[in-house]
Amino acid sequence: MPTSCKNIVEMQRNNGSGVYHIIDSNDIQYPVYCDMDINGGGWTLVSTVHENNLESSGRCTVGDKWSSEQGRTPTRPEGDGNWMNRNTFGHVTAATSDDYKNPGYFEITARDVMIWQVPNSTPLKNFSESAYLKYRTSNHFLDRYGGNMHYLYKNHFPIRSGAYSFPSHGPNEPVVFDKGNADEVMKHFPPNTRPHLEPGFIQVFYCKKTLENYKLFSFIKYPTSNPTFYVK
């Protein structure tokens, strides 16, 4: 059995973009969405970030597993810690309706990251055509950080309150656009913030002035709706 979408391509079992089954380190099968079109295919969807009611509240709420469902206290500065731990949650069929993280996030050894911006609640079969931005790294930056996002955050850039001082913003990795462009990215940010932004990069993290909150993998050098994360 294959262990990633890239492995499926290598095994010549590519039947186009869609859901495939791969196995984890315990030989347990699980479904994943594979993009088999961009840059030779083989991209595994490992996680999505779905912010509940962020537009009206401006804050993460219960159900936002990438931040904290239990609040952040001095004894829990990392919140739920899901950027750094081996928890899994959600299901690929509802990946744009809820937070999602599969074992590939911490088990697949990859070299690059691809991000699609997909409208909330998009059906699985419409992921690709509905994405209004698609971009990816091509410099193999994960080679420097353990080969996946789990080790990137766990061993190099832990996400916890008070870990960094303003204005610490982490590494910036250049991206290639497969759909959309830098100008379209800027349209998704308020006019008063645009002079401070430089599109065309993935940013590992940034530290807000309050030193309390972190937003991760910003999609420019400094998110818009429902980012879906692929690795290869």
Record keyword descriptors for this entry.
3-stranded antiparallel beta sheet; single chain; 13% helix; 23% strand
What's the rounded overall pLDDT mean?
A: 82
Low-confidence stretches: 54-58, 209-225
- State the shape: globular
The counted number of beta strands is 11
Structural class: alpha+beta
* First and last CA, distance: 17 Å
Number of helices, counting only DSSP H or I runs of 4 residues or more: 6
Quaternary arrangement of the chains shown? single chain
Helix content: 10-25%
The tally of structural domains comes to: 1
Written as H for each helix and E for each strand, in order along the chain, the element string is HEEEHEHEHEHEEHEEE
